[in-house]
């Protein structure tokens, strides 16, 4: 290796890595002002400190990004890998690694910001024209007989709409007017259907809507042509687009906004259910009144019949028969009671006699004697021998209790429970 030329160092043309990196950082920060960058999120890492690190990439390059805790806490977009976003920030250099990165200050989902801005601008312009004023809105018919639903015939929204009307036993007529609800030409097609439905003159109420989706999916309901057609329609309109949190400009232009298509079905059938309930209550009240009047007439007739029986001679005879039956029953009850008391006294006397009898005492003492005999029997030598023991006796038949008491050659007798065995001491 060729040694470094000291003249280069002395001239100041040689820089340290730190100095060089710091110059690059100053050039980048001075030459690139804060800006918006579009790309796809990848390598997302959320640290315990609250800082968020990720890469922003497109087909040709990749950019390291960091969003510090304070900025991350203010963002409404939930980051995930693969999300298309617009980020705003300034370039910086992490000197320890010599790596440049984008310090992210704000972030929005790509497409959402532009559409939301268009939404607000058109909303303000149409509102200024009075298109959303309350005095332009028509009241909904209480009991619409024919309802038209402008929606996609294959979507889940129309199925939920029909199911709720059927569950509530709504008896009106529903006509599904099929239309595109998303994509190019959807707004124009729905606006044309609105004008056609109004011209036919068959509908008491119109519903326009679809199921939920992103702001892009629902954008057809924000297009000016459809919003103006909804506001100008002479038939009352319910706007039922998306979920509860979704708002479109058709919601403001329509006569009534329903949170969901299912909510529109409930709104249409609510007054019908109320009328059916009132009719059921009226029918029930009429039945109760008729039943009450009939019962009152029946009671009055029974009262008159009772008075007629009391005034007839037959009633006196019947009363005497009842009194005779009552006396007969009382006499029989008295005899049964007397017999029962005598029987109970006899049973009591027998019980006392049985308790004073010596037989029970004899049985008790017999049991005690048997228990003592069993204990004596279990302690007898014969019982011990039966358990596998033996008694060693000398020639005189005396028991030998200790091994020291015998002598070598001494004859002994081992007594078992089933016989004796003669042995000699070794």
From TrEMBL:
Annotated keywords: Cytoplasm, Exonuclease, Hydrolase, Nuclease
The UniProt entry's sequence similarity note says:
Belongs to the XseA family.
> Cross-referenced Pfam families, in alphabetical order?
Exonuc_VII_L, tRNA_anti_2
Which residues are in the Exonuclease VII large subunit C-terminal domain?
131-423
| Catalytic activity as recorded in UniProt | Exonucleolytic cleavage in either 5'- to 3'- or 3'- to 5'-direction to yield nucleoside 5'-phosphates
Q: What does this protein do?
A: Bidirectionally degrades single-stranded DNA into large acid-insoluble oligonucleotides, which are then degraded further into small acid-soluble oligonucleotides.
EC number of this enzyme:
3.1.11.6
List where in the cell it is found.
Cytoplasm
Top class in the EC scheme: hydrolase
UniProt-recorded name of the protein = Exodeoxyribonuclease 7 large subunit
Q: How does it assemble?
A: Heterooligomer composed of large and small subunits.
Q: Which residue ranges does the record assign to the OB-fold nucleic acid binding domain?
A: 16-105
